[in-house]
């Protein structure tokens, strides 16, 4: 089995669009990323690989997840094209090129891309992707090259509103 965990960055500051790439998380965003990543720990969803958009808000989200999940922060890979550049077809090709030794891969990015990716990869995702939304998609395949559109099954979809007030 191969598993992709698609994460939209947590809540970012609502200003600084003239320097969008460097917008960071709000305090709520930091808390939400901590809550969601701990839910993954509870479900024993542990990354073999973490890949993030290099934009500050996505990378900061990835680093928070890495800390919760016991993944080395310096091992989080940065892929420029995850900063709203991949088409869904290009994203699928990217997934098909992942190293075979990695079974569970976390990918941190931005909307609308992450929503399109979750929808395209799975046969049963029809949800919204608010900030810090995390979709776990399982593929009943042995190789990343066998991953195809609509082949995945959504195992979990976590989003911050599910855990507020807890």
List keywords for this structure.
166 residues; alpha/beta; Rossmann fold; 6 strands; 29% helix
Please give a structural write-up.
Strands 3-2-4-1-5-6 form a 6-stranded mixed beta sheet, with helices on both faces. The longest helix has 16 residues, at 27-42. Helix 1 (27-42) packs parallel to helix 2. It has helices spanning 27-42, 56-69, 88-96, 113-121; strands spanning 2-8, 49-52, 77-78, 104-109, 134-139, 153-158. The protein has a single domain (2-162), classed as Phosphoglycerate mutase-like (Rossmann fold, 3-Layer(aba) Sandwich), CATH 3.40.50.1240. It is globular. It has 4 helices and 6 strands. The mean pLDDT is 95. The relative contact order is 0.23. It is of the alpha/beta class. Helix 2 (56-69) links the parallel strand 2 and strand 3.
In short:
The chain is an alpha/beta fold and 166 residues long. Helix content is 29%, strand content 19%.
CATH superfamily: Phosphoglycerate mutase-like
Give the fraction of residues assigned to helices: 25-40%
User: SSE order in H/E notation?
Assistant: EHEHEHEHEE
Overall geometry comes to globular
- Unreliable spans: none
Biggest sheet descriptor = 6 strands, mixed
Compute the CA-based radius of gyration.
15 Å
CATH topology: Rossmann fold
Report the CATH architecture.
3-Layer(aba) Sandwich
Q: What is the SS-derived class?
A: alpha/beta
Number of strands: 6
Terminal Cα separation, in Å? 33 Å
Q: Give the percentage of residues in beta strands.
A: 15-25%
Number of DSSP helical runs: 4
């Amino acid at each position: 089995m191969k598993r992709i965990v698609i994460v939209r960055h947590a809540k970012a500051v609502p200003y600084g669009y003239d320097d969008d790439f460097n917008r960071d998380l709000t305090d709520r965003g930091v808390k939400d990323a901590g809550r969601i990543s701990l839910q993954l720990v509870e479900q024993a969803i542990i990354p073999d690989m973490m890949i993030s958009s290099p934009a500050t808000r996505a990378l900061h989200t990835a680093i928070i997840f890495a800390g919760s999940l016991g993944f080395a922060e310096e091992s989080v890979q940065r892929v420029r094209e995850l900063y709203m550049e991949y088409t869904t077809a290009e994203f699928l090709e990217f997934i098909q090129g992942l190293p075979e030794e990695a079974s569970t891969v976390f990918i941190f990015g931005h909307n609308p891309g992450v929503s399109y990716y979750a929808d395209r990869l799975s046969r049963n995702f029809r949800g919204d992707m608010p900030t810090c939304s995390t979709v776990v998609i399982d593929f009943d395949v042995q190789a990343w090259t066998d991953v195809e559109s609509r082949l995945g099954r959504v195992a979990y979809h976590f989003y911050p509103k599910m855990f507020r007030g807890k």
